[in-house]
Specification:
This is DUF7848 domain-containing protein. It comes from Streptomyces malaysiense. This protein has 76 residues and is of the alpha+beta class. The protein has one domain. It is built from one helix and four strands. The strands form two sheets. A two-stranded antiparallel ribbon has the order 1-4.
Length: 76
């Protein structure tokens, strides 16, 4: 007799994990500048960096990145 495997599919959910926080960053993409704010725990800090960068350089196009942490749990 050959061994058998039994598979059970269990539904899971993925949600933001508040304990992981959120990180905010801004990257200048004007003319290949490449300057970046670095990661900040507050959105205002990354935005303020972009505003200061624009004031110093005249660059006005940025890529904003918001990173969070997610937790996977079994759906009940």
């Amino acid at each position: 007799m050959s061994p058998r495997a039994v598979y059970r599919h269990v539904a899971h959910a993925i949600r933001h994990a508040p304990e992981g926080g959120i990180t905010y960053e801004a990257f200048c993409v004007t003319g290949g500048c490449g300057a970046e704010s670095g990661p900040h725990p507050e959105q205002e800090a990354a935005q303020d960096w972009a505003l200061r960068h624009t004031g110093r350089t005249g660059h006005d196009l940025f890529r904003r990145v918001f990173t969070d942490h997610a937790k996977v749990t079994r759906a009940e």
